[in-house]
Amino acid sequence: MVDAPDNTVPPSGLEDHSEELSERSEADVQVRFYQAMAATDVAYEDLLDRLARAVADVIFDLCVVYLLEGDGTLRCAAAYHPHRETLSSLHEAFARPQNGLGDGLVHQVIQRQELYFRPRFNLSVLQAYSDQSDPPDLDIPIHSLIVVPLVTTDGRCLGALLMGRQSTSLAYDKRDLALTQWIASHAAMKLETARLYSDLQAAVAERDTFISIASHELRTPLSTLKLHAQMLQRIAHQTPEKLTLEYLLPKLASIERGVDRLDGLIDQLLNVHRIMDDGLTPDLTSCDLIAITRTAIQRLSFELERSGSTLTITAGSSLQGTWDRCRLDHIVTNLVSNAIKYGRGNPIEVGCVPEAGQQVRLYVTDGGAGISPDAQPRIFERFERATDSGPAGLGLGLWIVREYVESLGGSISVTSTPGQGSTFTVTLPRHASLD
Ligand code: ADP
């Protein structure tokens, strides 16, 4: 694999590093690299740029940082070359996902967790690893190449560093090879620490969002309750004769709705903690999905009437199975409440039907606002709302529903046309089990 390099001058515009390379010690390079990567407060993405630059600075001439994404795809996360135009050619060639230049080779390095070293290199080598018959032109003359995997101390491969030298007289040698391995293991450790740190920051930010949304949402019904209490006290002092039954009953009903809303919000917040702290072992008993659905809808009759929507149920007389009664009730209540809340007074249809293969299907269709295609996958995540406008909410209901559905072995999906309405469909095995 090791070919003898040509003895020619570096490409015009590039500094000649031959003297520096012959004089420097391994320790010098390590100290320089260490210093370049030392800052602890850099964000993860900035650290990647810093890494590409630090590697290119000490190993010469260029560096591309690849990261392996959660879905197994390769991301060209950062690239560095000291010359601006060359850097943009580098981006053009390597960093554009559609080009995929180098991807095949880098994939192989990652899969095998083995370094690739080619002291004398030409583009046809990459071609051999490319899916494309005609890879893009590479304006940058790379004459020597090292691709090294980024492996953490516990053996996980985060990605790879691709390093290239342009000068034909300064091919990488065994010393560079040893250095790049040291750099890669140091970089992997640094990236892993930065990722954990950024996950921690995200968790703290999520907790702060949670607290601010929760306190905002809890305050709204509380302020209404306080207003009612103040008003009633004022009237009791100033014009007690006004406090007739006719006057009081609607006010008391409104207070009760406010308390119910608070109760519902507190319940959602507690559910989040229950789900996160205790896991989700369901309490399985034999129960009837249709009876549970009808009872839940009955409980929502006031909200339904107020919304102006009519509701029809498509269901037989009973649909027996083994589920967690409270969770089923919660699932139905939440989906129907949302249909009422976002349905704009249009008709709602709820269905409970048996399906083939010992499954049952529960669906709730409304003719309301609908949900844009980009928001549809998001709304099942915590604190996610399709839009910030419209009725208030914590953005937690569908997340809790999905967790409950999955704890019973089922799945939930949505189909929706903005402006025309939405259908939420829950599919459950007829007999949930604890494994
Ligand atoms: P919340 O309603 O408290 O905001 P959910 O988790 O129940 O939280 O719903 C998340 C988001 O999904 C809502 O904010 C809303 O934007 C959207 N959504 C849920 N159900 C419907 C529906 N039936 N029609 C239109 N949008 C909906």
Describe the structure.
This protein has 435 residues and is α+β, with helices and mostly antiparallel strands. The protein has 3 domains: 183 residues, GAF domain (Beta-Lactamase, 2-Layer Sandwich); 72 residues, Helix Hairpins (Orthogonal Bundle), CATH 1.10.287.130; 146 residues, Histidine kinase-like ATPase, C-terminal domain (Heat Shock Protein 90), CATH 3.30.565. Helices cover 48% and strands 19% of the residues. The chain contains 12 helices and 12 strands. A 5-stranded antiparallel β-sheet has the order 2-1-5-4-3, sandwiched between helices. Strands 7-9-10-12-11 form a 5-stranded mixed β-sheet, covered by helices on one side. Strand 4 and strand 5 form a beta hairpin. The longest helix is centred in the middle third of the chain and has 65 residues. The relative contact order is 0.08. The N terminus is likely disordered. It binds adenosine-5'-diphosphate (ADP). The site of adenosine-5'-diphosphate (ADP) has 20 residues, from helix 11 and helix 12.
Uncertain regions: pLDDT < 50 for 5+ in a row? 1-9
Which fold name is given in CATH as the topology of the largest domain? Beta-Lactamase
Which small-molecule species are bound to the chains here?
adenosine-5'-diphosphate
- Distance N to C terminus: 52 Å
Quantity of strands, as a count:
12
Rounded to the nearest angstrom, the radius of gyration is 31 Å
Molecular shape: elongated
Main sheet strand line-up: 2-1-5-4-3
How are the SSEs ordered, and which strands pair?
Layout: H1 18-23, H2 26-36, H3 44-59, E1 62-68, E2 74-80, H4 84-95, H5 103-112, E3 116-118, H6 123-128, E4 144-151, E5 157-165, H7 174-238, H8 245-278, E6 284-288, H9 289-299, H10 301-307, E7 311-315, E8 320-324, H11 325-342, E9 348-355, E10 359-366, H12 397-407, E11 411-417, E12 421-429
Parallel strand pairs: 7-9
Antiparallel strand pairs: 1-2, 1-5, 3-4, 4-5, 6-8, 9-10, 10-12, 11-12
Helix pairs in contact: 2-3, 2-7, 3-7, 7-8, 9-11, 11-12
The structure holds adenosine-5'-diphosphate.
